[in-house]
Amino acid sequence: MARHVRTGDTVVINSGDHKGKTGEVIRVDTARDRVYIKGVNLRTKHMRPTRLNPRGGVITKEAPIHISNVNPIADGKPTRVRFEVDGKGGKKRVAVRTGKALPVMVRRSAGDRGKADTV
């Protein structure tokens, strides 16, 4: 099934405790229909000391949000997504609000991890 959000998209949360907040999608869990958004829905976890981490401590990390509770942003406003087939038979995402194609994030090689270009 096609997903309306992808890694690298800027999204707004439309329901729940974090309604109205925006952020960048850092991971999409397709098996559980969840997304992880940078800086949103943060949870703290107390880590006990181990051999690898002898001091232990408290870490903060993003918790998942259901994919139905987020919408991508087009021209500064949240939008629904429509899928259209272009002349070559490829599928592309189109913002319902503006009618424009949503940008596609192109992944680089393993040496340039964390950096992405839009097409």
Feature tags:
elongated, 119 residues, six-stranded antiparallel beta sheet, 12 strands, mainly beta
Describe this structure in words.
The structure is a single chain. The protein is an all-beta fold. 0% of the residues lie in helices and 45% in strands. The chain has no helices and 12 strands. It has a 6-stranded antiparallel beta sheet with strand order 6-3-2-1-7-8, with no helix packed on it. A hairpin with an 8-residue loop joins strand 1 (10-13) and strand 2 (22-29).
Number of helices: 0
Provide the low-confidence segments as ranges. none
Overall geometric form: elongated
What is the H-and-E element order?
Answer: EEEEEEEEEEEE
Percent of residues in helices comes to: under 10%
The main sheet comes to: 6 strands, antiparallel
Radius of gyration: 17 Å
Q: How do the strands line up in the largest sheet? A: 6-3-2-1-7-8
Span between termini: 23 Å
The helix/strand class is: mainly beta
Beta percentage is: 35-45%
- Compute the average pLDDT: 88
> How many E strands?
12
